[in-house]
What we know:
By secondary structure, the chain is an alpha/beta fold. The protein has helices spanning 36-52, 67-76, 94-111, 131-139, 195-203, 249-262, and strands at 2-6, 9-11, 17-18, 25-26, 32-34, 55-61, 80-84, 116-120, 143-154, 159-166, 169-176, 179-183, 207-209. The relative contact order is 0.17.
Amino acid sequence: MHAVVCIKQVPDATEVRIDPKTNTLVREGIPSIVNPYDLHAVEAAVQLREKYGGRVTVITMGPPQAAEALQKCIAQGADEAILLTDRGFAGADTLATSYVLAQAIRKLNAENPVDLVFTGKQAIDGDTAQVGPGIAARLGIPVLTYICAIRSFNLETREIVVERLLEEGREVVAARLPVLLTVTKELNEVRYASLPSMLRAARYQVRTWNKDDIEADPKQIGLKGSPTIVSRIFSPPQRQAGLQLAGPAPEVARELVEQLLQRGVLTA
């Protein structure tokens, strides 16, 4: 089994600030983390490898410092990590990003056939949930989104059965391999890295590929391949505290009715 996990290094959401003059994210001095949903994707791939054997490859597109995120995934149990970095990738939207990742997966598939592709359900900085399905569309493979459980996995029959976490409940679906899965945090609990794993990660040399290594079309990467334009980023206005009533139930009910009448929610 060969599983490829696509991860993203994102700003720590608890530290994000917006420049009021430029309406853009302030990234200087903001710590970066592995997208939390992606850690659950790595955990799922590692668990399958531990049960069925094989290999887990983690990839990301980003600047050189994104290698730190890949090393964290090595500490979590991944076998190999590849950083896709090139000035030509800068400014990519979800369309261009999915193209670069798909090209890298094609290259990996030529080296060692890929059975599963994992991503988190979405990235916490963009929240689009578009890259995973975009990769699947470019590779021409099925995509199963919002996976909260893997019921069965069979390499002989080339089939996987999973549960999807939907707003109205859970859905059980099956698909033939290869398939792309986007996962939720309900799928598993991310393990703590062991000391030997952390030492291995510290020594591990991340492989780097540029646009030529993956035979990328210059017109489909970076700004040239990105039809999306972000015109403004802003913080939503802070909500005011709601009305709180306390006291005996009859008095609270009377006060509540009076407030609703005053605000025109109720009519006498």
